Amino acid sequence: MLKVEMPAADEEGEKEVKEPEYERVNSASALWTRDKKDITDEEYKDFYKHVSHDFQDPQTWIHNRVEGNQSYTTLLYIPENAPFDLYERDHKRGIKLYVKRTFIMDDAEHLMPNYLRFVKGIVDSDDLPLNVSREILQHNKVTNLIRGASVKKVPGLLESMAKNKPEDYASFWKTFGQVMKEGPIEDFSNKERIAKLLRFASTETDSADQTVSLEDYVGRMKEGQEKIYFVTAETHTAAKNSPHLEVFRKKGIEVLLLSDRVDEWLVSHLTEFDGKPMQSIMRGDLDLDTEEDKQEKEKLSEEFKGITEKVKNLLGDKVSDVRMSQRLTDSPSCLVLNETDMREQMQKIMEAAGQYVPKAQPVLELNPDHALVKKLDGLGDDALNDWSMLLFEQAALAAGNQLEDSAEFVKRVNRLLTVNG
Fold first, then answer.
1. Nearest 10 degrees: CA dihedral of 308, 314, 319, 322?
2. Beta strands of 287-367 (E only): which ranges?
3. How many whole angstroms separate alpha carbon 408 and alpha carbon 410?
4. pLDDT at 28
5. N or C: which end of the chain has fewer CB within 10 A?
6. Residue of 285, 270, 289, 291 lying closest to 365 (CA atoms)
7. 185 with 269: CB under 8 angstroms?
8. Which of 115, 93, 137 is nearest to 188 (CA)?
9. Mean pLDDT, to the nearest integer, of 86-101?
10. What is the mean predicted confidence (pLDDT) over 27-32?
């Protein structure tokens, strides 16, 4: 039998009517409308979890109110961890748009550039219409003003973190560093400011950790050094073991070690910093020679002229030139790109995107002090062809390139080992 409880009745038999009691089931209020000094850190953290659906506390945040010709409020957070879709093409942005405290839309991509897609938070405008659409946002002056001001706030927040909490910034960089490297490519107006926030690995530390800023590098430049030198490779190990580094290590000149996939794009847009040109040590002639070095280079070129011409003829269109090197001290050979050439890895990325890229013809540099190069003089045609190809293929592998015919390379190595065994 179902038991039913009835409201209590008074003495006259009338039902007693009680005022309903309401219980608040969440604390999600328009927190950004309150004065900053009245909001505790815990309230900021709780609100972050509400708007981002993240269970972790944010790393830091900035709360800003602007009044004047345009009135709006921004509350922006830097997460502790990267969202799962950070590198996906259809990633979601983390900015929610409000108009006069009325929620309008999630994923307001026009309010934050792509390289800051990890930023979470809200923007509340008093001037946008309540029926604003994504199409209107794209061409709205108020939107552009809010976007420009918000973009400047985020680097300011990161600059403060880098200066006052370097350990926190190191953690941030490990999580979002590759995304931040997209900044100078996408945001030309803030390129110099973003460049100061970038971090790289370097021969100064010889560690894979990206801790060296461009300001650090410039501050350590040798007297008379005018360029910021860098080397790019597929991995950090390949970068730090590049034969192109040999003369720089010998002279004690620091080189940045770039191994992130975005680095090739970055250095093609970030061509200088603080008036110092960015220079790849894998391209062109190095401006490191003293007058004595230049005279020695001319002497070697003349001495090995016969060998370099023969090797060039044997390699054909694989190279644009063959010359004696001033950058090698231990390795027998290396490939040097011309200033306008694109690395093989970048060529593949461009071709995968459907763009035609002319094949680069690098310069093959030979180390005149290496036993293998000295051995070239006096070899017969067949042996000279094998050794020339081997030196070229070794240099290609050291540069991270793929060989056109790996099986033939193995046969050639085995043949030379057998002959000289």
1. 0
2. 321-324, 333-336, 363-366
3. 5
4. 52
5. N
6. 285
7. yes
8. 115
9. 81
10. 72
- What tokens were used for 23? 């219980």
- Among 122, 152, 92, CA closest to 30: 122
Q: What is the pLDDT of residues 245-282, one digit of tens each?
A: 999 999 999 999 999 989 988 998 999 999 999 999 99
Q: For the residues of 74-110, what is the DSSP string, one character each?
A: EEEEE-SS--TTTTSTTPPPEEEEEETTEEEES--GG
DSSP string, 251-273: HT---EEE-STTHHHHHHH--EE
Specify the length of the chain in residues: 421
What's the predicted TM-score (pTM) here?
A: 0.85
Cα 59 from Cα 230, distance rounded (Å): 31
Q: Which helix (H) or strand (E) holds 320?
A: none
Among 97, 89, 137, 133, CA closest to 114: 89
3-class secondary structure, 166: helix
Angle (nearest 5°) at CA 362 between 307 and 261: 145
User: In 3-state terms, what secondary structure has residue 194?
Assistant: helix
Spatial separation of the C-alpha atoms in residues 363 and 350, rounded to whole Å: 22
Q: What is the pLDDT of residues 348-390, one digit of tens each?
A: 777 777 777 777 789 999 998 899 998 888 888 889 999 999 9
Residue type (1 letter), 199: R
